[in-house]
Every structure is written in C-alpha cells, then in structure tokens.
C-alpha cells in the first residue's frame, strides 16, 4: 500500500461554546431599544415623509436581524453568521439615525446611509458559515464596503449633510452629487454580482437544496435584486421611489425569517438521525456504513474513509487507499474523532454545510459503529496488503523464470543446435569412415537428449508459447500432449494480461496431468470464458472423480497462483462422476 | 534453389548458410529480423525462406507473423519455420489456408542432414514438412474404440511419414520398401481410418492432422 503520510488536520467541526444567555439577552434588548429609538426619531423628525410607515419597516428589519441573529448565534455558535446578522440589524439602526433632528446624529446617519445594504450583501454571501469562502465573494463584499462607506465619508467632507453641513471641508455640492450617483450605480452592480454568486453557488451544488434552504436563497436573491432596483431608480431620479423602498425593506426582513424556518426544519431533519440510530443497532449491522450515512445525510455522493494509523493513510470499506482532496476543494471534508483518536473522514457535498446540526448529529450517532468499522477496515487493509505482496512475489518469481527461460533459449539450447549442425557438417567430411559415423551418431543422440531435457526445463520455467502466441495456441498444445482426447474452447477477444494467461496455462497443464494420472477418464474439456469482469477457466473430465481436494502440492500451488491474482479455485469431484476444476480470476474488460 | 534465412543466432545462421550452400542451394540472403526478412523475400524472390519462430525485438511471435505474411503475400515462396519447441496450435495456424509450401520443424532436426535437406527441398517445391513429434504426440493418446489401434506397426510408421508431408516415393525411400508397397499401405490406412483418400500429399497431411486432433 502506498503510504501517503497525512496526519489528520486539527478539527474543522470543532464546536465553540455558545455565548452566555445573558449576552444574547443584552443584544436582544439593545435591538429592541434601537428599534424603539428609530420609531421615536421618525415620528419626531422634521424631514421624514410618512414617518409611521417608514418606522414600521425599520422596526421590522432591525428586529428581524437582531433577534434572528441572536437565535443563530445560540444554535450555531461555530458559525459567524449570528454575530454578522446582529451587526446588520444595528447597522440599519445607525443609518436610520439620519432621521434625527440632532445635527450630529443626522450627519452620522447620512454618512452611513449605504451601510445596511452592504451588511445585507455580506450576510447573504457569507451564508451559512458566516465566512466569505471564495475570492470572488470577498472581492464583491470588500468593494461594497470601500465604495459605500469610503465615498460616503468623502461626500460628507465635500458637501456635508443636514442643514448645518457639519464636517464640510470644501463646498463642492456638484461633485458630491456625482459621487452619490457613482455610489448608487456601483451598489446596484455589486448587488447584482451578489445575485450572480448565489445563482452560481446553487448551480454548483451536487446535492439538491432542502426546500427551506432553497427558500432562503430565493429571499436573498430577491432582496439583492430589489436593492439594485432601488439604487438604480434613485440614481436616475425616477419616481415611485417609496413603493420600491418599502418592498425592499420588506424583502430584506424576510431573509432572517426564512433563516429561522430553516433552523426549525434542521431540527425536524433529525428524524433522519433517529432512523439511522435504529439502522445501526439492527442485527446484523448494515454491511457498509457509508450507505446508511449517505441516506441519513441525503448525500448520494458521500465517501466514508477510515483512518488507518498503521498505514498513515485513509482507506475505504474494502481496505483500499483513499486520497483526500486538497483543502478548499470539492467535496468538503469532515473529520470524525472519538476519545481523542482520529477515526474517519466524511467527504461530503459542500451544500451540507447548510445543515451543520444534521452533520453533527449523524456523525455523533455513528461514532461507535464507525470505530468498529474502522477496525474491520484495518484488518481488510492488512489482508489487501498481504495479497498485494503475495502477487508481487509471484510476479517477481515469474519474471525471473522468464529471464532464465530466455537465457536458456539464447544460450545453451542455441549452442547445442549449432553444435549438432557442426557435427552434421563433420559427418560429410568423414563420409566412409564407419567407426567415426557411429561415434557421431552417438554424440548426436546425446545432444538430442540434452535438448529434449532442456526443452522440458525451459517449458517448466516459463511457457514461452503462452507469452509468444497466446492462451488458445498454448492450450491446444496442452490438449495435444494430454493422454486423453481433450476438447478446447477459448472464447476470448484478444489477449489477457500475461500473469492471467500464465496462471490459466499452468492450471490447465496441472489439471490435465492429474486427469492422465488419476482420473481414468476417456475425455476432457477445457473451456476459457470471458465474464463481465473476470475470466473463468473450467476443466472437466468424465473420470472416476473423488479427487483429493485437500492436499497435493500441485493443487495448493495452483490455488496460490489463482488467489494471488485475486481469484478463486473450486473443485467438484463426486465419486464416480468426474472432476470439475474451476478457476475464476478478476480481469477488467 | 534460392533460399533466404532469418535467424537471430549467429552460429546457427552462418552454419545453415554454409550447409545449404555446400549442398547446392543458392543462399541469396540472411537476416536477423522479421522486417528484413519480408524485404529480402520481396527483393530476391526465393523458392524457400527458413525462418526462426522467435525473432527480435520481442522474441515472441514475430517469426510466425512474418511466415504467415509471406504465405499470404507470396504464395509461391515456401516457408520453413524452425523452433526450439513445436506446438500443434502453431502448426494448425500455419496450415490454416493450405499445407502447400509450409514446413514446421524443431531446430535440432538439422542433426539429420538427409531428412532436413529433404524437408527444405519439399517445402521449396510446394510440399509440406511437419515435425514428427507433433504426430507422435497425437498418436500417443488413449482413445476408446480407437481405429488407430487396428493399425499395424508398419501402417503407423506410414501414417507418421504421411503426416510429416512425405510423398509416397519419399516414404518408400525412408523405409527402404517399394513404391507399390507404400501405395498399398496408404490405401489400407485410409480405409481403416475411414478417410477419403486424396491424391495430393499436402492435402493428406491436413486430413491426417485433423483426424488425429479430433
């Protein structure tokens, strides 16, 4: 087994402790206070049109984000989304300070007029981990902050806000107006870029989104589209502004609601965990844990790889090595530890990160079963390794024998043939010398015998006819040399891998020898047939049967050879009803 | 008679060329590889090509493939394949189209010059030469209700010599009996085996081989 040293990374799914309830409560109360303050300043404002409606929408958005953020923080402490949502709620509050009649508050609010839409974009793109995972997401959000807040502050210095124009350095209202339009148009573009990112992300997910998650994505996209429309209409000075604004606020406030529904749904999805628990405790245990986990997680692409410390690598259910994808690649990885020891890794669809609770619960439930399965896999990996080393030893032996056969052919055999030719030429010259002729005859007979012996040795070392001319020709030769008539049928298209051909050849040779020695058969058949992913060799005789299948170095050696190739050897030999030897060796077609 | 030789062992190649040259053959070319052999046959139009079954580069079946190609492209050129081992399957492959102008012998048959040269001449003239080991192996099989068991020793000898590809005259010379005696034995053998007697020697080689193989 190839050892690719890969120490388990320190954990990604580590659970952070949830914030203390008091902290959450404080945030919630602060959110309510902020909402109340906004209502008061809207109603008292001397420059807000339709203050009641505006106030209601702002309360809706602030409360939605702060409260949903608190719940998210509590339920998913490992995600940064909760704090981010709370920040979005308070960001909205900051921009609504612009309603105040106090000049400082009014100016601050107007300077951060663009903060809420930027925070919403940030929240939407950072879902579900609260982190911006891809460079394009980071670029879009960073650009939004720079343009939205940076240009806002510049506008403040150029023209100031409010009647008193606090913080005005130079009076350039024309430039400030141009900058405002730039801000509006770029924020519309960035909002649409955000929609593009969301669409691309949804297309890229291999696993169908759960309905509540799909709803959430839709509400994100809707809010972003409305923000873009709002900004564009404002930039172009088109009327009907209030209606769009209200619709936008409403849609923006919908997103946290959809998020809360998703959290609730995640709790419901735990019924899948209950089914898994029942399945795992069934007797007999499910043959491959992967299938059970894939069902519970609804991720057909799931791969389960067990950590084998002895080999320093991961292996699948059958003990075959598994290579993990690089960091950040698809699929996503989730390490599973138990009692401080690394047990396994799940390679899952990245979309599953939308449901961390489900992943958490499933891995927790499967822990014990995974540990047992890991031990089994370790055993299988060892068997697999042994099989591999047996095959390598046989292969090395086979190569060495092939080399010896070749040396014999090119060396001793060749020289003896040449020598015998020389003797023939010599005989010509000595024509008439009877005693010389007799001695030459004797010498030639010796050479013939030597060649005969060498031929047998060479044949025993490596059947050159197999590698040279294929199984069909070689088996025909075996059939011809067999002591009883043998019918050979080889149904193959093209050649098989050489180790397989050689194994099949020796199997038939040994079996036909046994037929000649023990079976008292009158005939035999040899059949080689291609199966879907294996090759089957059947040798059947009509002899007395009752072959000793237990021992015999010949049969043991054949079984070794076949098993080293991952195949199996079976023998049926009922007394009086012939013998049937069948080898089946795996061979990809 | 014009001969080309393809054999990668130097000793044997030169020895064969020397031997055939001394016996009145015109050795028009020798080579070591299958490619060169095909070109040599193309260029020098020999009567017979003597080919080692194992030729470079892989020493697997290059010689056999070259032999089959010569038979397909130049039916008038006889091909005598030499090998350290003989295989019935390869003999059947060589004879697949017809037995005319084909030979397949163990390499050490060169130790009997008379027989070897007779075989080269026979193949050059469109006849057949099959190694007796193939036939004797097939004859040694145990068979139930076997017509072969009814053959006399002399008839078995005749059967082997026929299967080797020898003509009636050749058999008569080999066994030092008259041509008439050979003809009588041949028709008895065909009768006992239930084979239709065919005139041409190359046909009866195939007939006997197929009979023995079945």
Provide structural commentary.
- The complex is a heterodimer of chains A (589) and B (214).
- By secondary structure, chain A is of the alpha+beta class.
- Chain A has 17 helices and ten strands.
- Chain A folds into four domains: 21-268, Up-down Bundle (Rhopdopsin 7-helix transmembrane proteins), CATH 1.20.1070; 287-391, no CATH class; 400-461; 469-586, Histidine kinase-like ATPase, C-terminal domain (Heat Shock Protein 90, 2-Layer Sandwich), CATH 3.30.565.10.
- In chain A, helix 2 runs parallel beside helix 9, helix 10 (270-280) packs antiparallel against helix 11 (289-297) and helix 16 (498-519) runs antiparallel to helix 17 (553-564).
- The longest helix of chain A is centred in the middle third of the chain and has 74 residues, at 356-429.
- Chain B folds into two domains: 2-130, Rossmann fold (3-Layer(aba) Sandwich), CATH 3.40.50; 135-213, Winged helix-like DNA-binding domain superfamily/Winged helix DNA-binding domain (Arc Repressor Mutant, subunit A), CATH 1.10.10.
- Chain B is built from ten helices and six strands, in the order βαβαβαβαβαβααααα.
- Chain B has helices at 10-22, 34-44, 62-73, 88-94, 113-124, 132-139, 153-164, 168-175, 179-193, 201-213; strands spanning 2-6, 26-31, 48-52, 78-83, 102-106, 128-130.
- In chain B, helix 8 (168-175) crosses helix 9.
- Chain B starts with a strand and ends with a helix.
- Classes of the chains: A alpha+beta (589), B alpha/beta (214).
- At the A-B interface, helix 12, helix 13, helix 14 and helix 15 of A face helix 1, helix 4 and helix 6 of B.
Descriptors:
heterodimer; A: 589 residues; alpha+beta; Rhopdopsin 7-helix transmembrane proteins; 5-stranded antiparallel β-sheet; 5-stranded mixed β-sheet; 17 helices; 10 strands; B: 214 residues; alpha/beta; Arc Repressor Mutant, subunit A; 2 domains; 6-stranded parallel β-sheet; globular
């Amino acid at each position: 087994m190839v050892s690719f040293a890969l120490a388990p990374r320190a954990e990604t799914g580590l659970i952070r402790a949830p914030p203390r309830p008091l902290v959450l409560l404080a945030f919630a109360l602060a959110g309510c206070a902020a909402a109340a303050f906004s209502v008061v300043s809207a109603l008292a404002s001397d420059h807000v049109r339709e203050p009641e409606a505006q106030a209601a929408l702002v309360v809706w958005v602030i409360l939605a984000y702060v409260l949903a953020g608190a719940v998210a923080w509590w339920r998913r402490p490992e995600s940064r989304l909760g704090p981010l949502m709370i920040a979005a709620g308070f960001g909205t509050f900051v921009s609504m300070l612009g309603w105040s009649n106090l000049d400082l508050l009014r100016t601050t609010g107007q300077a951060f007029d663009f903060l809420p839409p930027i925070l919403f974009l940030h929240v939407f793109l950072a879902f579900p981990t609260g982190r911006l995972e891809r460079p394009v997401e980071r670029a879009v959000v960073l650009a939004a902050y720079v343009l939205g807040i940076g240009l806002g502050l510049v506008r403040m210095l150029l023209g100031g806000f409010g009647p008193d124009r606090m913080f005005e350095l130079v009076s350039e209202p024309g430039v400030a107006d141009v900058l405002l339009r730039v801000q509006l148009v770029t924020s519309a573009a960035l909002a649409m870029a955000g929609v593009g990112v969301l669409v691309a992300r949804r297309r890229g997910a291999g696993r169908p989104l759960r309905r509540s998650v799909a709803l959430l994505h839709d509400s994100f996209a809707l809010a972003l589209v409305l923000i873009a429309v709002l900004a564009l209409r404002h930039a172009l000075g088109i009327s009907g502004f209030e209606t769009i604004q209200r619709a936008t606020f409403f849609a923006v406030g919908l997103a946290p609601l959809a998020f809360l529904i998703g959290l609730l749904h995640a709790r419901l999805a735990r019924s899948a965990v209950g089914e898994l628990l029942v399945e795992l405790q069934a007797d007999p245990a499910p043959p491959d844990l992967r299938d059970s986990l894939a069902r519970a997680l609804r991720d057909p692409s799931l791969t389960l790889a067990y950590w084998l410390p002895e080999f320093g690598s991961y292996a699948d259910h059958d003990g075959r090595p598994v290579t993990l994808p690089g960091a950040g690649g698809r699929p996503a990885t989730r390490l599973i530890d138990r009692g401080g020891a690394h047990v396994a890794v799940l390679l899952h669809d990245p979309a599953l990160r939308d449901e961390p609770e489900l992943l958490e619960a499933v891995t927790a439930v499967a822990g014990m079963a995974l540990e047992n399965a890991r031990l089994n896999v370790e055993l299988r990996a060892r068997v697999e390794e042994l099989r591999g080393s047996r095959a390598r030893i046989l292969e090395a032996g086979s190569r060495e024998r092939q080399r010896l056969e070749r040396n014999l052919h090119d060396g001793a055999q060749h020289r003896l043939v040449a020598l015998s030719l020389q003797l023939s030429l010599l005989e010509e010259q000595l024509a008439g010398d009877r005693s010389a002729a007799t001695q030459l005859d004797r010498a030639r007979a010796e050479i013939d015998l030597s060649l005969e012996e060498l031929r047998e040795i060479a044949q025993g070392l490596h059947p050159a006819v197999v590698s040279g001319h294929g199984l069909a020709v070689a088996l025909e030769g075996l059939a011809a040399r067999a002591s009883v008539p043998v019918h050979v049928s080889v149904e193959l298209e093209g050649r098989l891998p050489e180790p397989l051909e050689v194994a099949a050849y020796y199997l038939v040779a040994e079996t036909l020898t046994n037929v000649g020695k023990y079976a008292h058969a009158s005939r035999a058949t040899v059949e080689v047939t291609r199966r879907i992913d294996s090759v089957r060799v059947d040798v059947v005789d009509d002899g007395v049967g009752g072959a000793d299948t237990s021992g015999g170095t010949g049969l043991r050696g054949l079984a070794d050879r076949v098993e080293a190739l991952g195949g199996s050897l079976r023998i049926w030999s009922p007394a009086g009803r012939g013998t049937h030897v069948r080898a089946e060796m795996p061979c990809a077609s | 008679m014009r001969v080309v030789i393809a054999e990668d062992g130097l000793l044997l190649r030169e020895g064969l060329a020397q031997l055939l040259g001394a016996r009145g053959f015109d050795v028009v070319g020798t080579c070591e590889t299958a490619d060169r052999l095909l070109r040599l046959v193309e260029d020098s139009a020999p009567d017979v090509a003597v080919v080692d079954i194992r030729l470079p580069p892989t020493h697997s079946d290059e010689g056999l493939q070259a032999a089959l190609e010569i038979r397909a492209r130049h039916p008038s050129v006889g091909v005598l394949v030499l090998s350290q081992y003989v295989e019935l399957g390869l003999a059947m492959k060589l004879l697949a189209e017809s037995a005319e102008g084909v030979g397949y012998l163990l390499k050490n048959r060169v130790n009997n010059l008379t027989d070897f040269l007779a075989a080269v001449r026979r193949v050059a003239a469109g006849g057949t030469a099959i190694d007796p080991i193939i036939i004797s192996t097939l004859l040694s099989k145990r068979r139930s209700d076997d017509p072969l068991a009814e053959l006399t020793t002399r008839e078995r000898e005749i059967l082997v010599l026929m299967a080797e590809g020898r003509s009636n005259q050749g058999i008569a010379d080999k066994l030092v009996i008259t041509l008439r005696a050979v003809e009588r034995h041949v028709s008895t053998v065909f009768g006992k085996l239930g084979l239709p007697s065919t005139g041409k020697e190359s046909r009866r080689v195939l007939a006997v081989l197929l009979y023995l193989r079945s």
